[in-house]
Design brief:
The chain has 250 residues and is of the alpha/beta class. The chain has 8 helices and 8 strands, in the order ββαβαααβββαβααβα.
């Protein structure tokens, strides 16, 4: 059961994207090697908000005012809108999660494939960490263009990014129950059967599943299924990234 007072809040007053983050890994992404970074850990959201609202002596601006002039040269309206959504997203996520530990980072993944099953298929992957987050990924799928491969590879990319960022505990939220079942239940039986299914056929996308399993040995993963195309903010954003990725050239 989530109890707000037991959580930590990392307030970034000066960094790449000022705002409030739930984990040190997310906070570190915003302040690592950022000149003059200003950030602090708090036990309550109110204290974190107060820190953000304080005037930074280095810039003479509060974190919220800086969000509205993010690049110090006048940001575009769309960028400002994304930045203003950040705190709402974090708070919304905390309400949705029943049990969250300080070191667990949440990411949404999705795969998309236009004309799936046809020779004209174009597939992409989406990895969504948060609004305007620098680690968000929107990429064209390399190799065979199918929706199922895109779902698997999107999870692989999330884990690869987590490994690069030294994130030790990751919650992957995906609308692919197939991928979750495969990596948490079926894969051991597949390996015992020489990568054959229960009815004797070859496991499809074996190389992708081998890649995914290898990555799960480097990062502690919690798998969570979410309903696709039902208004779940993170899922909808991951879907957009995946669709945009499918439209890209190699």
């Amino acid at each position: 059961m989530l109890i707000a007072r037991t959580m930590s809040f990392y307030a970034v007053r000066r960094g790449r994207i000022p705002g409030i983050y739930r984990t040190w890994a997310e906070c570190n992404t915003q302040v690592l090697r950022y000149s003059g970074a200003s950030f602090k850990k708090f036990r309550t959201l109110n204290d974190a908000n107060a820190f953000i609202d304080e005037v930074d002596p280095k810039t003479k601006l509060s974190g919220r005012k800086r969000e509205l002039s993010f690049d110090d040269s006048g940001c575009q309206n769309s960028d400002c809108k994304k930045l203003r959504q950040l705190e709402d997203f974090v708070i919304c996520e905390m309400k949705d999660v029943k049990e969250v530990k300080d070191d667990c980072v949440v990411v949404y993944t999705d795969g998309s494939c236009e004309n799936n099953g046809k020779c004209t298929a174009r597939a992409g992957i989406g990895v969504f960490w948060g609004p305007a987050h620098p680690l968000n990924a929107s990429e064209r799928l390399v190799g065979k263009q199918t929706n199922q491969r895109a779902e698997i590879v999107a999870c692989c990319r999330a884990l690869e990014i987590a490994k690069e960022q030294n994130i030790a505990h990751l919650e992957i939220r995906t609308d692919s129950q197939f991928v979750i079942n495969a990596i948490t239940m079926w894969i051991e039986r597949w390996k015992e059967n020489g990568w054959k299914t229960q009815v004797g056929g070859d496991v499809k996308n074996m190389d992708d599943f081998k890649r995914l399993e290898k990555l799960t040995n480097t990062v502690k993963v919690k798998w969570t299924h979410v309903n696709g195309h039902c208004g779940v903010f993170g899922n909808e954003e991951a879907d957009k990234l995946a669709r945009n990725g499918g439209a890209r050239s190699y």
